[in-house]
UniProtKB/TrEMBL annotation:
<feature type="binding site">
    <location>
        <begin position="188"/>
        <end position="195"/>
    </location>
    <ligand>
        <name>NAD(+)</name>
    </ligand>
</feature>
<keyword id="KW-0963">Cytoplasm</keyword>
<keyword id="KW-1015">Disulfide bond</keyword>
<dbReference type="Pfam" id="PF07992">
    <property type="entry name" value="Pyr_redox_2"/>
</dbReference>
<protein>
    <recommendedName>
        <fullName>Dihydrolipoyl dehydrogenase</fullName>
        <ecNumber>1.8.1.4</ecNumber>
    </recommendedName>
</protein>
<dbReference type="InterPro" id="IPR006258">
    <property type="entry name" value="Lipoamide_DH"/>
</dbReference>
<feature type="binding site">
    <location>
        <position position="211"/>
    </location>
    <ligand>
        <name>NAD(+)</name>
    </ligand>
</feature>
<feature type="binding site">
    <location>
        <begin position="325"/>
        <end position="328"/>
    </location>
    <ligand>
        <name>FAD</name>
    </ligand>
</feature>
<keyword id="KW-0520">NAD</keyword>
<dbReference type="InterPro" id="IPR004099">
    <property type="entry name" value="Pyr_nucl-diS_OxRdtase_dimer"/>
</dbReference>
<feature type="domain" description="FAD/NAD(P)-binding">
    <location>
        <begin position="5"/>
        <end position="334"/>
    </location>
</feature>
<keyword id="KW-0285">Flavoprotein</keyword>
<comment type="similarity">
    <text>Belongs to the class-I pyridine nucleotide-disulfide oxidoreductase family.</text>
</comment>
<feature type="binding site">
    <location>
        <position position="58"/>
    </location>
    <ligand>
        <name>FAD</name>
    </ligand>
</feature>
<feature type="domain" description="Pyridine nucleotide-disulphide oxidoreductase dimerisation">
    <location>
        <begin position="353"/>
        <end position="462"/>
    </location>
</feature>
<dbReference type="GO" id="GO:0004148">
    <property type="term" value="F:dihydrolipoyl dehydrogenase (NADH) activity"/>
</dbReference>
<feature type="disulfide bond" description="Redox-active">
    <location>
        <begin position="49"/>
        <end position="54"/>
    </location>
</feature>
Length: 479
């Protein structure tokens, strides 16, 4: 038997590494197990988020957005940039450098906080035992009073479009293109599909997004979703709703995709195809049979509101449990679990978790949509404000989009905030704080905002809830 720990965390993604660091900060002897092999053949920390998810995709989104700005928008500001081109390989190399720096940074944080990093594949083999198998197949069993499963998730593959090296790829493969495909197909109009489609559309690809659902971004307030769809279409993304992919065929260096829509059977040919139809929990083989940790039919580990499994001392967090598959949700669960293990009282407000789509403009939301509230029988009042009426948005050449607040008609309590616009991902924190503290729309309306800022749109939306917006014509009668 190898070393004994107070806590062993399986997985060093944004849930696992945060849980491990927090546990160590609280004085617990902690280890974190990771199997991810990086491009240099060594184990790296950070999980999907840092290696092939949040961080590299944002590097490409930012680079491609600056390219579009330089090529099409700078002239409006009086900047003559001349003939602008993109070096895709250099863009990819920069992305890889950012990933390397951040994953290496986690190793430094482990060392600074006294977390023991264990390389290999972790498996819970008992209520207090974790078996780790290294790259050579050697298995070592460690004891731990507490175990945190943070194994993450992997992209879903679908039978009609089996992955084919370099032609039919998942989100990971889409981050490695070395040249811009002329015709790009994307299956799935969710967060990942829209972000990756935007990257390559900006760089010159003819992008078609095939979405099986008839509605666009159903998790977003309908007014914001409708405006987002219009803006993305204007940018060149051809989003086909109600398009169910039925098959594909690789012909040389092309992919022929078959799908059905309201007009019947259709066919399109692409140079590359990205499959972005969601992710599934990576729980297969993480827990040995007979341990007693329960899984549902989709592979998610059963946990309570504080991430306890059915086995005392065994917790599970992040993408492998219920709820949204978000890095920040996993991190907060990791902190909560570490605090609980250390004997502190901790809980998490799952109604105040923000979501962001990093297209341009960004789409961000937290809490209920107007349609959610109405479905629950809650009478609401709403306030919206367009960025077209914002002085800072005009100065930024970013007047597209709007901010919207949904409040309880009786209590004025803010139920949700939805934004499409430049920096929406930063501004949504106001909505998160408002929900966390049970704020009313009046609370935001009475708050002094800096001028000129994009955030003033949130202030005006709060004022608009009662028809008191200053910088637009009010449809409601002032009280």
């Amino acid at each position: 038997m190898a070393d004994k720990f107070d806590v062993i965390v399986i997985g060093a993604g944004p849930g696992g590494y945060v849980a491990a660091i927090r546990a160590a900060q609280l004085g617990l002897k902690t280890a974190c197990v990771e199997k991810w092999i990086g491009k240099e053949g060594k184990v790296v920390f950070g999980g999907t988020c840092l290696n092939v998810g949040c961080i590299p995709s944002k590097a490409l989104l930012e680079a491609s957005h600056k390219f579009v700005e330089a090529k099409h928008d700078f002239a409006d500001m009086g900047i003559q940039a001349g003939d602008v081109s993109m070096d895709v390989k250099k863009m990819m190399a920069r992305k890889d450098t950012i990933v390397k720096n951040l994953t290496g940074g986690i190793a430094g944080l482990f060392k600074a906080n006294g977390v023991t990093g264990i390389e290999g594949t972790g498996k819970v083999v008992g209520a207090k035992q974790v078996e780790v198998t290294d790259q050579d197949g050697k298995a070592t069993t460690y004891e731990a009073d507490n175990i945190v499963i943070a194994a993450g998730s992997v992209p879903v593959e679908i039978p009609p479009t089996p992955l084919t090296e370099g032609l039919i790829v998942d989100s990971t493969g889409a981050l490695e293109f070395q040249e811009v495909p002329k015709r790009l197909g994307v299956i799935g109009a969710g967060v990942i599909g829209l972000e990756l489609g935007s990257v390559w559309s900006r760089l010159g690809s003819e992008v078609t997004v095939l979405e099986a659902m008839d509605s666009f971004l159903p998790m977003v307030d309908s007014a914001i979703a409708k405006e987002t769809q219009k803006l993305l279409k204007k940018q060149g993304l051809d989003i086909k709703l109600g398009a169910r992919v039925t098959g594909s065929e690789v012909k040389g260096q092309e992919v022929v995709v078959k799908y059905t829509d309201s007009d019947g059977e259709q066919e399109m040919t692409f140079d590359k195809l990205i499959v972005c139809v969601g992710r599934r929990p990576y729980t297969r083989g993480v827990v040995a049979d007979g341990v007693g940790v329960g899984l549902d039919e989709r592979g998610f580990i059963h946990v309570d509101d504080q991430c306890r499994t059915s086995v005392p001392g065994v917790y599970a967090i992040g993408d492998c449990v219920r709820g949204q598959m978000l890095a920040h949700k996993a991190s907060e669960e990791g902190i909560m679990v570490a605090d609980i293990i250390a004997g502190h009282k901790a809980e998490m407000n799952y109604d105040a978790i923000p979501c962001v789509i990093y297209t341009f403009p960004e789409v961000a939301w937290v809490g209920m949509t107007e349609q959610d509230a109405k479905a629950k029988g809650i009478e609401v009042k709403t306030g919206s404000f367009p960025f077209a009426a914002s002085g800072r948005a005009m100065a930024n050449n970013a007047t597209e989009g709007q901010a919207k607040i949904i409040a309880d008609a009786e209590t004025d309590r803010i139920l949700g905030m939805h934004i499409v616009g430049q920096h929406a991902g930063e501004m949504i924190a106001q909505g998160v704080i408002a929900l966390e503290f049970g704020s009313s729309a009046e609370d935001l309306a009475l708050t002094c905002y800096a001028h000129p800022t994009m955030s003033e749109a949130v202030h005006e939306a709060a004022l608009a809830v009662e028809g008191h917006a200053i910088h637009m014509a009010n449809r409601k009668k002032r009280k």
